[in-house]
Amino acid sequence: MHSLPSPPSSVSDLLWTPAIATVSLGAAHLHPITAKLDAAAKNGQRGLELFHDDVAQLAKTLRCRSGERTTIRSDRDYEIDAAHTIRDLCTRRGLQVLALQPFRHYEGLIDPGQHAQRLDELQHWVQLSKILGDSLFILIPSSFLDPSQITGDRDRLVRDLAQAADLAFPIRIAYEALAWGTYVNTWEDSWDIVRRADRPNLGICLDTFNIAARLWADPTSPTGRQPAVADQVLQSSMARLVREIDPDRVMMVQLADGERVDPQEPFLQAPDLPKLLAWSRNARLFPCEEERGGYLPVQAVAEACLNGLGYTGWVSMEVFSRTTGEDDPSVPDQHAARAHRSWQRMLKRLDVKIEQDQAFG
User: Fold this and answer.
1) What confidence score (pLDDT) does residue 359 get?
2) Whole-angstrom distance, CA of residue 165 vs CA of residue 191
3) Residues 292-326: pLDDT tens digits?
4) Which of 243, 317, 336 is nearest to 39 (CA)?
5) Three-state DSSP string of the chain
6) Which pLDDT score, from 0 to 100, does residue 360 have?
7) Could you tell me which of 24, 14, 21, 25 has the C-alpha nearest to residue 356?
8) How far apart are CA 313 and CA 200, in angstroms?
């Protein structure tokens, strides 16, 4: 069995170190990565979930700047250049890349050729990860492809995640259950696969939005939620989470709330798109933003994932929203400031006794 080197100590004296996903700071094609990094650093975030879209967009920019009009260098070559640039930009701002994501639609592919292609792409991501940081992981969200394209055979899913971890070693892999995943859509599903795959560099990512969305919410209902029994279902699930998950295998906790919307909202009517996915892409909020329509039981989920589980490490704000797609240069600053306020509010609600100036360094 491989042995995994211990990650460096936290950059914070707190139990948790605040981070933010670059997707939460604006759309890659509208908001340059430099603007996002500036906003994150100015508002106290210390780590970044780097979305591959931002790497790819910077790679396109670097290609254009080079004036190259041939195909001598591939897109992957320019992404490697972009990774070096992003690491340098982060270093100068005191930021750390903690994750590269999302490596979508990997596990359970029925077509062997598609599986081989994803492994080849994963190898490229491993190369990017080695450039981007000294202790980061690649996040694999559960697949939401049509059942005609993927299998739900649990043994096969376990083998696929083990294969990804072995290929990536010593880079770590985190597996996350999306609420709309075809076969894996609860933390119990993802934890079972991670536990059975049993690789030292394979862990789990816990997301307050995905947990609450699957067990409690229903954006298509006039009430925005499932029937009253969902309260007990969520409570029981969180009690199991605290009992069963090994906190040392949790690589990140993500915080996000959801906006209560009109069930007839046009984005919920998108054909062939799961309702929870459509809602997630357009209407997430930072935690504790009830003034903007937030209503999920995020605090209960965060309490279990953080205090209950005894987790220490990165806590990241991961918000997808129609507001990040606004063609306004102030979007990164606005969203980073909202994340700052949200984190401070969440710490107070979790009854964390720290000085105000410590909350964001």
Assistant:
1) 45
2) 15
3) 999 999 999 999 999 999 999 999 999 999 999 99
4) 336
5) CCCCCCCCCCCCCCCEEEEEEHHHHCCCCCCCHHHHHHHHHHCCCCEEEEEHHHHHHHHHHHHHHHCCCCCCCCHHHHHHHHHHHHHHHHHHHCCEEEEEECCCCCCCECCHHHHHHHHHHHHHHHHHHHHHCCCCEEEEECCCCCCCCECCCHHHHHHHHHHHHHHHCCCEEEEECCCCCCCCCCHHHHHHHHHHHCCCCEEEEEEHHHHHHHHCECCCCCCCECCCHHHHHHHHHHHHHHHHCCHHHEEEEEECEEECCCCCCHHHHCCCCCHHHHHHHHHEECCCCHHHCECCCHHHHHHHHHHHCCCCEEEEECCCEHHHHCCCCCHHHHHHHHHHHHHHHHHHHCCCCCCHHHCCC
6) 42
7) 14
8) 17
Contacts (Cβ under 8 Å, ≥6 apart) of 261:
219, 224, 268, 279, 283, 293
Cα end-to-end span (Å), the chain: 39
Q: What pLDDT digit, counting tens, does each position of 221-234 carry?
A: 999 999 999 999 99
Q: Which amino acid is at 36?
A: K
The structure's pTM equals 0.93
The pair of three-digit structure tokens given for residue 99, joined into one six-digit string:
């994750």
Specify the residue for token string 């598609």. 114
Segments of the chain scoring below 70 in pLDDT? 1-13, 69-70, 353-361
Token pair in block for residue 252: 């990140």
